[in-house]
């Protein structure tokens, strides 16, 4: 079975003027998603809308590796006339499209590779002081994400480092079964369950709108 996830992730965020939103959604769903999925190395894709945080619109592309969108297959693809008047780079506000490389887990398991696009995503985008990077990453990978993965409704958590695009440098993407998972007492309990959490969490500076929760609206 073809892989659905790899080590790369492209996320495209934007807001759209209300008078252009209907056409924007039609363009994305009827044309653009399929166009990007035709690029070699783009494994799967879905669109999401914010239920907490923002910007409102998020397109998520799972990649074999970040190289999938750095080569000619992506950058020199043929674009339609519709794309010349539509799209997040043309009409979008608060637009950003960071390209990520997965840093946790450290490999793509068969379970991860075969997994579908999640119904809900919670995305945290963050920076931390450079001098604490090694300690902080070790804690995040060995303690913080694994504890949240025990919470009912959490499918998995993955961490990424930005390889192209805007700060913040690090992102965490939790896949949820529904949009209420991180609003539960079970989730909240994990925030303080380990004695290192308070110190490590205090190092985090979140990007605008982070953490944000997105519900899936479209997938081919």
From TrEMBL:
This is EthD domain-containing protein.
């Amino acid at each position: 079975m073809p892989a659905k996830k790899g080590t790369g992730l492209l996320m495209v965020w934007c807001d759209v003027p209300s008078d252009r939103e209907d056409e924007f959604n039609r363009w994305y769903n009827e044309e653009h998603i399929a166009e990007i999925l035709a690029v070699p190395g783009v494994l799967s894709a879905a669109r999401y809308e914010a239920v907490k945080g923002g910007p409102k619109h998020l397109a998520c592309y799972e990649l074999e590796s970040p190289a999938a969108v750095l080569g000619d297959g992506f950058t020199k693809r043929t674009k339609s006339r519709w794309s010349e008047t539509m799209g997040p780079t043309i009409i979008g506000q608060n637009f950003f499209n960071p390209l990520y490389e997965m840093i946790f887990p450290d490999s793509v398991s068969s379970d991860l590779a075969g997994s579908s696009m999640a119904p809900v995503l919670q995305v945290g985008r963050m920076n931390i002081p450079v001098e604490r990077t090694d300690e902080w990453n070790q804690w995040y990978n060995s303690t913080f994400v694994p504890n949240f993965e025990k919470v009912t409704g959490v499918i998995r958590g993955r961490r990424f480092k930005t390889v192209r695009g805007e700060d913040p440098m690090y992102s965490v993407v939790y896949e949820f079964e529904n949009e209420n998972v991180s609003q539960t007492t079970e989730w909240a309990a994990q925030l303080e369950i380990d004695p290192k959490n308070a110190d490590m969490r205090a190092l985090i500076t979140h990007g605008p709108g982070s953490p944000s929760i997105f519900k899936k609206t479209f997938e081919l």
